[in-house]
Amino acid sequence: AQKVTQAQTEISVVEKEDVTLDCVYETRDTTYYLFWYKQPPSGELVFLIRRNSFDEQNEISGRYSWNFQKSTSSFNFTITASQVVDSAVYFCALSETFGGNEKLTFGTGTRLTIIP
Amino acid sequence: DADVTQTPRNRITKTGKRIMLECSQTKGHDRMYWYRQDPGLGLRLIYYSFDVKDINKGEISDGYSVSRQAQAKFSLSLESAIPNQTALYFCATSENAGLAGHEQFFGPGTRLTVL
């Protein structure tokens, strides 16, 4: 069965520091997708990125970057020069197609606090 | 206007009461989902529907039921609410895809408290 582990329950860093959020997954599929979502204090879930299992190229979007390594089943998320607005709970998620049905499994989330 | 809406946004009820949470979407997506979020547990799938005639149980469906009234509407019911159903509930939608991996779009959430 698919599983997503976010071992870091809470992280606090001082503003402008870099921070990496870890995500390790388990799946039996060769075709799957990985996601990151952000949940700010207001509670909504905001989609950040999707990566498919055939594309191991790292991605950078402004201060955000993602490192996908199939060899270690990891999809880590780094925020550079963190800002207070980055304070949120971040969820990693895995989607695989099993028996024709697509399901999304979430990790338990990492609460990130940026200290001004 | 929001693409995925949930009503009510907050609800306090008593043990044993029947509760319905409603979700509507204007995205034209075929697929709809209900999740609950509990502290430290992330989001867990309750039920999902890939089209109007399709209903599937998720990871934690006991104590819940759903109704897909139309492509745009997906309701979650608690027939007899109990305190451990106190949680934040999210509705989500996604495209019906030949390829897996379309992102899910979430509603704003419904905070339910069962006393």
Entry keywords:
heterodimer; A: 116 residues; mainly beta; six-stranded mixed sheet; 12 strands; B: 115 residues; seven-stranded mixed sheet; four-stranded antiparallel sheet
The N- to C-terminal Cα distance of chain A equals 41 Å
Tell me what portion of residues of chain A adopts beta-strand conformation: over 45%
Radius of gyration of CA atoms of chain B, rounded to a whole number: 13 Å
Overall average pLDDT of chain B: 92
Distance between the termini of chain B: 33 Å
Low-confidence stretches of chain A: none
Structural class of chain B: mainly beta
Provide the fold topology.
The complex is a heterodimer of chains A (116) and B (115).
Chain A: E1 3-5, E2 10-14, E3 19-21, E4 24-26, E5 32-39, E6 46-52, E7 59-61, E8 64-69, E9 74-79, E10 88-98, E11 101-106, E12 110-115
Parallel strand pairs in A: 2-12
Antiparallel strand pairs in A: 1-4, 3-9, 5-6, 5-10, 7-8, 8-9, 10-11, 10-12
Chain B: E1 4-7, E2 10-13, E3 19-25, E4 31-38, E5 42-51, E6 54-57, E7 65-70, E8 73-78, E9 87-94, E10 105-106, E11 110-114
Parallel strand pairs in B: 2-11
Antiparallel strand pairs in B: 1-3, 3-8, 4-5, 4-9, 5-6, 7-8, 9-10, 9-11
